[in-house]
Amino acid sequence: MTVEDAPAAKASRAGRNLPAAIGVGVSLAALVIGSLVVRKEAFLVVLTIALGVAVWEMRGALAKARINVPLLPALIGAVAMVVGPYVGGGQALAVTLTLTCVGMLLWRVADGVHGAAMDIAGGMLVALYPCFLAGFAALMLAPDDGVQRLITFILVTVFSDIGGYAAGVWLGKHPMAPSVSPKKSWEGFAGSVLSCAVTGALAMVYLLHGPWWGGALMGCLVAATATIGDLVESTIKRDLGIKDMSSILPGHGGIMDRLDSLVVVAPMVWALLYWFVPTA
Prior knowledge:
Elements: H1 18-38, H2 40-63, H3 71-109, H4 116-141, H5 146-171, E1 175-177, E2 181-185, H6 186-206, H7 212-240, H8 255-276
Antiparallel strand pairs: 1-2
Helix pairs in contact: 1-2, 2-3, 2-4, 3-4, 4-5, 4-8, 5-6, 5-7, 5-8, 6-7, 7-8
C-alpha cells in the first residue's frame, strides 16, 4: 500500500493514521509469520481468505464504474489459483487462470448481452490482478524451503514501503508522479531501493544461503516493481474516484491496499529466487 493512499484521519506528515497503521501492520505480520511457522497449509488458508476479500473489494470498486464482475467465478478462481499451483506447480496456475476466465465469460453471457463486454473485461482484470499474480506466492511456498522463500519475499517487499515511507517523510521534495500519487517522491524511492537492497542481501544469505549480490539485485528490482504496483493501484482508484478499496483495515484502507505491491512483485521474486537458489 502506498503511504499517500492511506486514510487521513489523525494523519502523520505522510498522511497516514500512524498509530492505527502500526497496530494493524504488526497484527497482520504476526498472522502471516505465525501461519508460516505453524504449517504451510495454514498460510494458504490465510492467503485464500485475504484474496477472497481482495476480490470482493475489487468488485465493489469496479461497480462504481458500472462494471459488474461475476463474483462466484472470481471467488472460485481465487481459491483455485492458490491451491492449484501449490499442489500442481506452474502448469496448474496456468490452467486455473484459463478456467477462471472461461467461467467468467460463460457466467456473464448467461446474464445477457447488455454491458457484457465491460463486465467480462472487469472480470478478467480481477482474475489476473490480484488472483493470478498471488498464485506465484503459492509457487514459492511449495518447495522444501518454501517458508524461507516466502519470508524473504514478504520482508523485501514490506521494507520497500518502510524505506520509502521514512525517506519520503524526512527527505521527500521531488514528486515522482504528482498526477497519480502526489506524495510519492524520488527521495522516497531512493529509500525504498536502499532498504530493499540491504534486506534482500541479508535474507538471501541467512535464510536461503544464496549469493548476497543476488539478494541486493533482487531488492533493487523489488523496489522498482513495488513502486509500479503502488502506482498501478493508485491509477485505478483515481480513475474510479475512490481513496481506498475499502475501510476494513484502520490506517491502511482495504486488503487490496495491502496486497497491491505484493502481488505485482511476487512473479519477479519467484523467478529470481528460482534462478539464484534453484530448487532440488
